[in-house]
Amino acid sequence: MLYLFGFERIGVAVSDLYFVDPRPAEGQEGAERGVRLEVRRLEPGELKGSVYSARPINVDRPLWRVDLLESVSGPPGSFDRTHHHPRVKGWEPGGRVFDEGLTAELGRRRLPHWRPGQLVVGVRAAGDGRASRGR
Fold first, then answer.
1. Phi, psi at residue 33, to the nearest 5°?
2. pLDDT tens-digit map of 12-33
3. How many other β-carbons are positioned within 10 Å of the β-carbon of residue 105?
4. For 110-120, what is each residue's pLDDT tens digit?
5. Are strands 2-7 and 32-44 parallel, antiparallel or unpaired?
6. d(Cα 72, Cα 4) in Å, to the nearest integer?
7. Residue 40 and residue 11 in contact, taking contact as beta carbons nearer than 8 Å
8. Which residues of 33-53 are buried (b: 16+ CB within 10 A; e: fewer)?
9. Where does residue 129 fall: left (phi above 0), alpha (psi -120 to 50 degrees), or beta otherwise?
10. Strand partners, 104
11. Is 71 helix (H, G, I), strand (E, B) or coil?
12. Contact between residue 43 and residue 60 where contact means Cβ atoms under 8 Å apart
C-alpha cells in the first residue's frame, strides 16, 4: 500500500512496512511491521508536451519520517517500536528517536497530537528553508 498527498511543494507519503533491521539496537532485534509516514519534497517538472499536457511531479527526498511500528513477535497494537526521525540528511534518516508519549497515544487508539509548529520546525531544519507554516 502507498498513498501520496501533495500540498504545493510538500507531500505526505504513507505506506505499510515490514522491516528487519540489519543492525538492530539492543532490545530491537527481530522483524517489525506497521506504517511509515514521510514528509517529502515535491518538485514540479517541465511540461513534456503541449500546454494541455500533464505536468510531471517528482516525489523527492524525505524531510521527516515517523514509523508507527511494532515487533512482529509482540502483541498486536503494542506500537513498541514506534519512533520518528527528526533529522534527515539527503536520503538517509538520522537515528531513531523514541517518544513514549507517541507510543502511549497510539496505544489508546488516538492520533498523536503535535504542538503547533513542532513538525514545521523539523521540516525547515531538514529542508532548504522554503517550507513554512501556512504555505
1. -140, 155
2. 999 999 989 888 888 888 999 9
3. 16
4. 555 555 444 44
5. unpaired
6. 26
7. yes
8. bbebebbbbbeeeeeeeeeee
9. left
10. none
11. strand
12. yes
Distances (CA, A) of 129 to 9, 13, 81, 121: 12, 21, 31, 10
Cα-flanking dihedrals φ and ψ of residue 65, to 5°? -145, 145
Which pLDDT value is given to residue 122? Answer: 44
Nearest to 93, CA basis, from 64, 131, 127, 51: 64
C-alpha cell at 37: 509516514
Q: Please list the helix, strand and coil fractions of the chain in percent, rounded to the nearest 5, in that order.
A: 15, 40, 50
- How far is 13 from 4, CA to CA, in rounded Å? 5
- Dihedral, 72, 20, 33, 63 alpha carbons, nearest 10: 150
- Overall size of the chain counted in residues: 135
Q: How far apart are the first and last CA of the chain?
A: 28
The grid coordinates listed for 54 are 500533464
